[in-house]
Amino acid sequence: MATISFFGGTNTPIDNLSGSGLGFFGGSFGSSVELNAFQGSTYITNGAGTIEGAAVNNIKYASATTGYAPSIVPATGLKYIPNKNASLNVRFTHSSNVKTQNVRMRIFDRANANNPASGVWTRVAELLKPMTSYSTVEGSGDVTWWGDSTHDGTDSQGTFSGSPNRDIRLPANQYTVGGSGIIVPLAQSPGPSGQFAGNGSANTGTYTQHDWYVALSASPKSIGAKTQYGLYVSLEYL
């Protein structure tokens, strides 16, 4: 049997609240994120963002290639952030050993996976650094945030639908991970704890568990709560 599960950080299940997911806030739960700024905290919450669950790792967009990450100051390069400090852990399990491929992540409006989320700009970066410390050793994940206008739409697996191919429904010169516009590719067959991911494209090993680690950052386009906002992951396994 195949199952996809979502965890805040690396070990906090997200399915503990009705319609639950990650919510992005200002400095604390319930506080608003300023316009033209990115979130200051991330929590597990219900679909309306009104019930406070566990706080999870907050990684805040700083520039095209850097983020403010837990336990380190100032902003650091995305490739230096360890998997354990991710905002989100996506886990695929199967009763027998399988490899995974064509793994894709979308941000959408909770109605149609081809539609971008409503009222929010989103940046996404895959982390590929199984080491537990930041250190001076680079991982092999994304160098640039997907959704940033400087992203060229490529990673180790090739060229994808993505930056700078914004969704056609967005205003000119506006970029965000969303719908059928910018779709984020995740590593092929990373194995348990993502330890076999390598550069994201080389591994073809088979395992009963595969883990992906993702940094997520969001900014509102207008005032008010944004609830038409969801995350969708698809993959092939064999």
Give an overview of the whole structure:
It is a single chain. The protein is mostly beta strands and 238 residues long. It has one domain (2-237). The chain has no helices and 16 strands. It has strands spanning 2-8, 12-13, 21-25, 41-45, 52-56, 60-63, 66-68, 76-77, 88-98, 100-108, 120-127, 154-155, 158-159, 184-186, 207-220, 230-237. The strands form five sheets. The protein has a five-stranded antiparallel beta sheet, with no helix packed on it. Strands 3-4-5 form a three-stranded antiparallel beta sheet, with no helix packed on it. Strands 6-7-8 form a three-stranded antiparallel beta sheet, with no helix packed on it. It is globular. The protein starts with a strand and ends with a strand. The mean pLDDT is 91.
Give Rg in angstroms: 16 Å
Low-confidence stretches: none
**Average pLDDT over all residues:** 91
Helix content: under 10%
Helix-strand sequence: EEEEEEEEEEEEEEEE
Which descriptors apply to this entry?
16 strands; 238 residues; 3-stranded antiparallel β-sheet; mainly beta
